[in-house]
Amino acid sequence: MLEGCAARHQHHRSARSLAHSVTFPYSLTRFYLHVVNYIEHYGLVRENKGAVLPAHSWNASTTFGNAVTYNLQRHSDHHASAQKPYYALESIKDAPQLPAGYPAMMLLSMVPPIWFRVMDPRIDDVHAKAM
After folding, report:
1. Is 129 exposed, middle or buried (0-12, 13-18, 19+ CB in 10 A)?
2. CA 25 to CA 94: how far, in whole Å?
3. What's the whole-model pTM score?
């Protein structure tokens, strides 16, 4: 009887371990995608669901960030030319620019008061240029 309990307990531990090994990476990936989407478009507005333009996303031109995010920081070019492969994306000079690369901005977004202090003046600048 004790052997049956031990075997059942081992089975449950194995099942929990398997579930954790599958769900944790999935959850981490979803979290990463939501954070990146947040920093890519924070505060930028597209009126009347018109065409998606380079001005509707933030860029960053850091070498390290582009290397670890596969040029994801050149997001405005993706908006301008969605058919371009990631390795061919270019920085668009007139697109809104983040003060640091995506990795640093992802960390900064985890501290909302600092994030708002850094980003809100940039949003005001972007909107002022648009008018």
Report:
1. exposed
2. 36
3. 0.74
